[in-house]
Design goal:
CATH topology of chain B: Spore Coat Polysaccharide Biosynthesis Protein SpsA, Chain A
CATH superfamily of chain B: Spore Coat Polysaccharide Biosynthesis Protein SpsA, Chain A
Largest sheet of chain B: 7 strands, mixed
Oligomer: heterodimer
Order of helices and strands of chain B: HEHEHEHEHEHEHHEHH
CATH architecture of chain B: Alpha-Beta Complex
Strand content of chain B: 5-15%
Shape of chain A: elongated
Chain lengths: 138, 236
């Protein structure tokens, strides 16, 4: 076993331990933790037996194991970028709605009008990813 | 300015709320607002997080001064001012640029179009009159934008990125801008095309000053706007 293999296994194991700790504290969901653990475990298996990737690659018509990993990496990175971009778009939209509401309230309050007299025309629609109970922290 | 030439019914003027998005326009905004308010008393300025004293100028110029604590872009500022004016009972919403490139008498003609019920939305059209007043580079860029929208939005307009617009209250309630930055001008055309609202293009004069041209879009900005617009359309 080479030094790099040992380093790789240790690093992946550290990630695995962190995932378990986060899941136990409830910082990440259990399903997500299990999925990530599966990825980390696969990483450890491939670090121990690098030739395994080539065996799998050959089975699906790719000549080298490293190529298989590269293709998968491209897919994962693309998906990751898209997911983060969409998330960012939504956050920007929500920031705009928040800044808008603040601006209108500040201007209305300046004239001594009661706050919140106007209903928010359904601009701030509830979202699926909000915590139950109106998004308040427990 | 020839404010003596502007004649408009008092109640029509009062029912019209003029929304001005302001971003770093401290040099000109006070004069622009003053000239507007001689005809249209209800002027809403939305300072979009300026860092040059625009906010102080705006607050001194109009009682309807709003401030975005964080810069959100011109489209976002317009929508903020529109939402505010609608909550305060505006019958019509006008969009007006802060840099002094628009004329109050043009706005008054457009307001009359909407107030008389000739249309739901009046759009300023800088190509409706003396085209030679538009700088050549600007003309080419805007013609490209027009051609683009003929395909993308399926609506044939003369001038698609003109900041001068008047919307009736029902039209303003139906058109909610979600493109925060400059692509709002493209978005609004889509929304108009889909809404079936009656549109009229009114010839207007743009006063191209060194100041307004410096603040205006560089031609590369056209591609950025197009990109934001297409992404917005693709993702909803």
């Amino acid at each position: 076993m080479t030094a790099f293999q040992i380093f790789l296994i240790a690093a992946l194991a550290a990630v695995g331990v962190t995932l378990v700790a986060l899941a136990l504290r409830g910082a990440i969901g259990r399903v997500a933790a299990l999925l990530w653990l599966a990825v980390v475990s696969a990483g450890i298996v491939f670090a121990v037996a690098p030739n395994l990737t080539t065996v799998i690659a050959r089975a699906i018509g790719i000549s080298r194991g490293t190529d298989l990993l590269l293709y998968l990496l491209v897919l994962v990175v693309l998906y990751g970028f898209l997911a983060i971009y969409l998330k960012l778009r939504r956050v920007r939209r929500e920031l705009t709605l928040l800044v808008r509401e603040l601006a209108i309230r500040e201007a209305s309050a300046g004239r001594g009008e009661p706050r919140g007299e106007v209903e928010p025309r359904g601009e701030v629609e509830p979202r699926g990813d909000r915590e139950p109970g109106g998004g308040r922290t427990p | 300015m020839a404010e003596t030439a502007v004649s408009i019914d008092r109640s029509v003027a009062l029912g019209t709320w003029v929304v001005i998005p302001v971003f770093n326009e401290a040099v000109v905004i006070a004069r622009v607002v003053r000239e507007l308010r001689e005809v249209f008393p209800n002027v809403v300025c939305v300072d979009d997080g300026s860092g040059d004293g625009s906010w102080e100028a705006v607050r001194a110029a109009t009682p309807h001064a709003l401030r975005h604590l964080v810069n959100r872009g011109q489209g976002a500022a317009l929508q903020t001012g529109t939402a505010y004016a609608l909550r305060r009972g505006a019958e019509r919403i006008a969009h007006f640029d802060a840099d002094g490139q628009h004329r109050v008498e043009d706005l008054a003609r457009m307001v009359r179009c909407v107030a008389d019920g000739d249309c739901d939305i009046a759009l300023g059209d800088r190509f409706g009159g003396d085209v030679t007043r538009v700088p050549a580079g600007r003309r080419l860029l805007l013609r490209c934008a027009v051609a683009f929208h003929r395909v993308a939005s399926g609506i044939a307009l003369n001038d698609v990125h003109n900041g001068l617009r008047v919307l009736s209250r029902p039209a303003a309630e139906r058109i909610e801008l979600t493109a925060d930055r400059m692509a709002h001008a493209s978005e609004i055309i889509d929304l108009i095309a889909r809404s079936g609202l009656r549109v009229r293009q009114v010839p207007v004069t743009i006063d191209y000053t060194d100041y307004s041209r410096a603040k205006g879009q560089h031609w590369t900005g056209g591609f950025r706007i197009m990109f934001h617009y297409l992404v917005g359309r693709a993702l909803g």
